[in-house]
Amino acid sequence: MTVEQPNTPSPQAGWPLWEVFVRSRRGLSHTHVGSLHAPDAALALRNARDLYTRRSEGVSLWVVPSAQITASSPDEKDPFFEPAGDKPYRHPTFYEVPEGVRNL
Amino acid sequence: MTTVLPERGSGGERPGGQEAGALGVADHLAMFDAAIAADERIEPRDWMPDKYRSGLIRQIAQHAHSEIIGMQPEANWITRAPSLRRKAILIAKVQDEAGHGLYLYSAAETLGADRDDLLDKLHTGRQRYSSIFNYPTLTWADVGAVGWLVDGAAITNQVPLCRCSYGPYARAMVRVCKEESFHQRQGYELLLALSRGTPAQHAMAQDAVDRWWWPSLMMFGPPDAESSHSAQSMAWKIKRHSNDELRQRFVDICVPQAEALGLTLPDPDLRWNEERGVHDFGAIDWSEFQEVLRGNGPCNEQRVTQRRTAHENGAWVREAAAAYAAKQAARTAADTTDAGAAHPAGADSTGPEQHTEGGPAV
């Protein structure tokens, strides 16, 4: 696993970048919708409201400084995810069920 | 549009570049080509050819610029909208265009572009925006024609981009397309009201359609044979259909819509071709397109000047917001130091919902 260091915003970009997550309705988790620039958390939230929920797309918003996110390695085919690759027995479809057996 | 930014300021190293030692460029290219062939999406941290990256930045930036420059011709009519209903609709539409610009700048940033740098390139004429916005909106009916034809052409262009091979761009386009369909409908409804109104209103609607029809057809870009970026864009699945294909689709969509409006399209050669199953239409005056592109359209100068002025006039707002943020951060830091003993770290780890206003110093 290559742990990516959080990025520092480039000096010429005045405001830090924030990632925006919206809970579209009760019962669902917050989902990433995009990003925006803002000088602080309060304004990031207000900007996120104006940018990502103009049509009542959400009941709750999270904003997270992009620099605070730690990601797995850049390549999404990375060996980091390999341990799960050879364990098909974790899925119910791995098992044979005799004909006629129900509710299993 | 991305979870994590690509690396910046690390000596020009690109995302994915860290592994160049383990995998050669040829391996990366093979994986990239395989992903494209399998119709998978390329995501920000994947390795990608330099030209894929730079071509996308150019295209997304031009698209973003078009959205925010596109606010101007219509904003021109906000104060003169004929009713409160129309005014509210127009304000919402212009606000949407600003939003679309922001979605797209955000997508461009995932490729390593810098937003301030992109704006600077727009302001200094080093990057372009769609030449359609260099035409003036002379009457209220133009607001309708822009919605119906310009946004209609944009939708025809953009719907296939929702399946573009670059993930963040495709996701931005999904949002944009959902919102654009309101834009097109409000324009159509506006034109319909005028077309069914007094003879003077009908004439105004017809005049607007006459002026916007040909520029809208030019929005699809030069004919396939002369389009410089097309072949590579198609191979990389950034583009899914050729300029001429999309233009034809748009014409075929518009003809019955114009009939329903009771308006005509200004092309004497426009007729149904039974054999081909599409409409034939007249030759486009590409010299006009080239002139506008060269900066000699009716409003080129005005649009960029106004954009630059708006940016400069907004400087104090940005400065004030930054100063306020710095002050709040300093206060929070001071409070934390004072109360350090009373509130041990970890006592407030209640999840993001608790940290809205003020929040932790970040």
UniProtKB/TrEMBL annotation, chain A:
Pfam families: PaaB. It comes from the Bacteria. It comes from Streptomyces tardus. InterPro entries: PaaB, PaaB_sf. This is 1,2-phenylacetyl-CoA epoxidase subunit B.
Automatic annotation (TrEMBL), chain B:
The keyword tRNA processing does not apply. Residues 1-20, 334-362 are annotated as: Disordered. The keyword Oxidoreductase applies. Its EC number is 1.14.13.149. Signal peptide: none annotated. NCBIfam families: PA_CoA_Oxy1 (TIGR02156). This is 1,2-phenylacetyl-CoA epoxidase subunit A.
